[in-house]
Structures are given as structure tokens and as C-alpha cells.
Amino acid sequence: MPSTLDQSFVTNSVWKPDIFKGKVVFVTGGAGTICRVQAEALILLGANAAIIGRNKEKTDKAAAELSQLRPDAKVISCIVDVREVSQLVEAAAKTVRELGRIDYVIAGAAGNFLCDFNHLSSNAFKSVIAIDLLGSYNTIKATFPELRKNKGAIIFVSATLHYYGVPFQIHVGAAKAGVDALSNALAVELGPLGIRSNVIAPGPIEGTEGLERLVKDRAKTISQVPLQRLGTTRDIAEATVYLFSPAASFINGTVAVVDGASWQTGSGV
Ligand code: HXC
């Protein structure tokens, strides 16, 4: 997958080019479209990164490509199943050994498929809860010592489908509702340590696996979005940079819904 951001994100941007210089981001799901563009933005603006994924080939490839975004960028890959906290602890240790520190954590690893309740097995439900919700918890558990030391910040990648009832998404809706609750509680509990926790909830974003699987009629979908367009990966990147930047230093325990007000129409995108 080619990078969706390039140098124009730095030159044609409201952000200072070195805003994240010396910082390190730890990204689960970093080989997928949404979390990858979040990593791209931070790397282009000065950060180094650890890309965490389950599939070795995809994760190594993403890390190698991301390291090309900036001449002095350091990007490592860690092969981890986020359901296993010990693997995340090892990945965090490797990140500190090789990149020196962790300042920002993006918990975005997710599993999903469309399945109606009647055919959804208990194990299938458990698998998605374990990846999306337990995996998010494990990610923060493993990186907490670094977040505390560096007064870091967290972004969870959630969704909007639990704001109302979306059929065939019972498992993901339940998991993402849990992710939002996890972020809220962490924001309150870790706030006194100087750690901020927020959520990005993407809507219909062009070029993502989710959109491809969920949206069959593109023109109809666009007509249902109040802003009359699909979201772009850049929209996700901008929200990510804002939430990690000093401009958001009093933003804690919020959900940034990046969907053009799509979910509020009840159209299911
Ligand atoms: C019904 C399914 C299923 C499907 C798996 N299962 N796929 N049930 N419909 N399409 C069931 C299996 O039969 C099994 O239950 C249980 O789920 C666990 O399956 P495994 O394959 O053993 O689990 P695992 O290898 O851990 O895979 C986890 C996964 C898988 C979540 C099921 O889809 C995955 O790894 N996905 C990662 C990639 C991914 O999903 N990316 C999408 C992200 S996009 P039984 O009872 O048979 O044991 C996104 C945005 C929204 O999240 C997308 C909207 C659609």
C-alpha cells in the first residue's frame, strides 16, 4: 500500500514541520489504512515510530515504506497479537531500546466482518472483543510506564456504529462502545499524571477496507453525508496531529468524530 501523505502535508499545512521532532509514536494496526496515515502524519512532522501488527509481511513492509517519508526517520516493526499483553510489553521494550522512548500511543488494531446475530458464534463475538477492546487495554497497559514518564497522550481508534443500532455489527459495536468507555475512564484516572486520552471515530473514509466492505453505492453514500463528500485519510491525519499537538493540551476524554456529521443522519455510514 503506498503512503497516502507526502511532503505536501508538511509544506501545505497549518502545522509546524518539526512539531513532533524527538517524539516517538507506538501504533497498533499501523499497517492498516487509518492507523498508517496517522503514523505517516507524525513521521512527516518529525516523529519516529513503532508499527505494531500481527501479519509480519504487511507490518515489515509498512515500516520500511514509512521510514522513507523523512530522510532521518526511524521506523521499526514489531510483530504482535494485541490479545497477548506479554507480546505488547516486549514490543514496548523493543521500541524503547531502539527508539529511546514512547510519547504517543495509537490503539487502532481491529478485526471486523459483517455477520448477522443468528450466525455470529460466541467465539466470533469473543474474537472481535478480544482484538478491539482487550487489545486496546493491553496496548495502554504495556506502554503505561513510558506514557507516565513522558506525560504522553493516547488516541484510540473507534467508530460511530455504536451510537445507534447497526445490523451485522453487534460484535464491533459492543467492542467500540467499550473502547470509548476505556478512553473516558483513562482520561479521568491518568489525567492527574499528565496523560491525555482521546478517541478518533472515523466515518466513511475513502480508500479504507471498512468503506469497501460496508458501502456498495458510493454516490448514495456521498449524498447522505451532510458535507457531500467522503472523508479522506488526510482528514484522519489532521485530527490526529491536532489531538497530539500542544494545541490540544486541554483536550482530554473526548471523541473526535471525523465523519462530516454522517452518523447524525442515521444513514448507517
Ligand atoms: C462469521 C466469522 C467470520 C465471518 C471469522 N469468523 N470470520 N464468523 N463471519 N466473516 C469466526 C470464526 O468462524 C471463528 O468462530 C471466530 O470468528 C474466530 O475466527 P478466527 O479466524 O479463528 O480468528 P482470528 O484468526 O483471530 O481472526 C480474527 C478475525 C479476523 C477478527 C475473525 O477477521 C481478523 O483477523 N481480521 C483482521 C483484519 C480485519 O478484520 N480488518 C478489518 C478492519 S476494518 P468459530 O465459532 O467458528 O470458532 C474495520 C472497519 C470496519 O474494522 C469494517 C466493516 C465491515
Automatic annotation (TrEMBL):
GO terms for biological process: fatty acid catabolic process. GO terms for cellular component: peroxisome. InterPro entries: DECR2-like (IPR045017), NAD(P)-bd_dom_sf (IPR036291), SDR_fam (IPR002347). It comes from the Eukaryota. Keywords: NADP, Oxidoreductase. One of its GO terms (molecular function) is 2,4-dienoyl-CoA reductase (NADPH) activity. It catalyses: a (2E,4Z)-dienoyl-CoA + NADPH + H(+) = a 4,5-saturated-(3E)-enoyl-CoA + NADP(+); a (2E,4E)-dienoyl-CoA + NADPH + H(+) = a 4,5-saturated-(3E)-enoyl-CoA + NADP(+). Its EC number is 1.3.1.124. This is 2,4-dienoyl-CoA reductase [(3E)-enoyl-CoA-producing]. It comes from Scheffersomyces stipitis (strain ATCC 58785 / CBS 6054 / NBRC 10063 / NRRL Y-11545).
